[in-house]
Amino acid sequence: MSQTLCPQRTALTLAASGVPVLPLRRGKVPFANCLTCAGNACGGRPNMKTPGPCDCPGVCHAWAAATTSPEVILSAPWAAAWRRAVCVGYHPGGTGLTVVDLDNADAIAWARGFLPATRTVPTTRGEHWLYRGAMTSRNAVRPGVDIKSTMAYARYLGPGTGPLAALPETVRALAVKRPPAARTAPHAGAVPAGSGECPHRTPAYLERGITMAVQRITAARSAVHATVYRTFLAVLATHGRCSCLTDAHVTRLFAAAQSKGERARHCTDAWTNARTTLGL
Fold this sequence. Notes:
Elements: H1 7-16, E1 21-25, E2 29-30, H2 70-74, H3 76-84, E3 87-90, E4 97-102, H4 105-114, E5 119-122, E6 127-132, E7 138-142, E8 145-148, E9 154-155, E10 165-166, H5 169-174, H6 203-218, H7 224-239, H8 247-259, H9 264-278
Parallel strand pairs: 6-10
Antiparallel strand pairs: 1-2, 1-3, 3-9, 4-6, 4-8, 5-6, 7-8
Helix pairs in contact: 6-7, 6-8, 7-9
């Protein structure tokens, strides 16, 4: 029987394999807190940083209520929620996973050109890409892309296909918030690339990455500042520690940003801030 017809049964199966689960109601959202816990009056689960049921016997506190306990899943308060549930949610970070939620065809195309292949799960409008490793969650890291891992929940839509890849630095970089612009910035030509040994097998990998980065910047229709910074961050996360990234590549990225109205100083600020964030 499918999870749509019997979400509680699906939840028990997942919990038995160590996946923290919770019921989701119509709209694919968690059940609201009970009156005792409304407005977090109960104080919530300590620090709200680990999965598992809160002190309330009901289904409270969204992702923090996710549990692997069959006793909790079968308890009377949870049973009432399961009868109203439309699907099963789970806490990816609680099982050591990160979900890159791709909400449309454009987002999927971007991921195929910019992220390493991994296990994929079809969704209603796009795909979930699952990586082995947990990280900070963040929504709208780029158009149509959310990251769900710690302190977040995702809808369970099946085991997916393909082997699980390790969580890449490219994905971690997407969730890093942009720091304030540097007050003083060096000239673009003074921003060096890495000097370590290059781990990439072919120059085509770097060329594809730079081409995708340029396309991402030039396709931005809003939030150009943020798009430029996140693109620089992603490029440096992948290529910033080796010797393959040259001044010519940096010039191409800066030129793409300036074609969208960014000034040279803003480009240098974004590049410098990205290097600082990554410790380069």
